[in-house]
Amino acid sequence: MGAAAGGLDPFVLGFTVFVLAVFVGYHVVWRVSPALHSPLMSVTNAVSSVIIVGALIAAGPAELNFSKVMGLVAVVLASVNIFGGFIVTHRMLQMFKKKEPREAGQ
């Protein structure tokens, strides 16, 4: 089947995509200004929703097996990652808000 698909080994193709993704991702993140880095990275944790979809598919079988347990673990960890990212973003945005001046009587 490898010869029919252009003679590429699926592992080599997948590994090439992985290496290119790491290279491009590193350079994209490295060029983000420090003031935007943390809010940007915490919001991009929402990409974990893709992990949740895959984990729900893995956790779908009726019988209890390793796949179902790992799917449940993936759902829990990805959920913590998503909500934690939004909490961090909210707290960082609060740091940049102007504080209201207090009244003289308070």
Question: Your description of this structure?
Answer:
There is one protein chain. The protein is mainly α and 106 residues long. It folds into 2 domains: 31 residues; 63 residues. 69% of the residues lie in helices and 0% in strands. Helix 3 runs antiparallel to helix 4. It is flat, with a radius of gyration of 22 Å. The mean pLDDT is 75.
Give me some keywords for this one.
0% strand; 106 residues; mainly alpha; 69% helix
Query: What is the overall number of helices?
Result: 4
Cα end-to-end separation: 78 Å
Into how many domains do the coordinates divide?
A: 2
**Helix/strand/pairing class, anyone?**
mainly alpha
- Helix fraction, binned, reads 55-70%
Q: Give a short account of the largest sheet.
A: none
Described by its quaternary structure, the protein is: single chain
Briefly characterize the structure.
Helix content is 69%, strand content 0%. The protein is built from four helices and no strands.
List the helices and strands and how they pair.
Elements: H1 10-30, H2 34-43, H3 48-58, H4 66-96
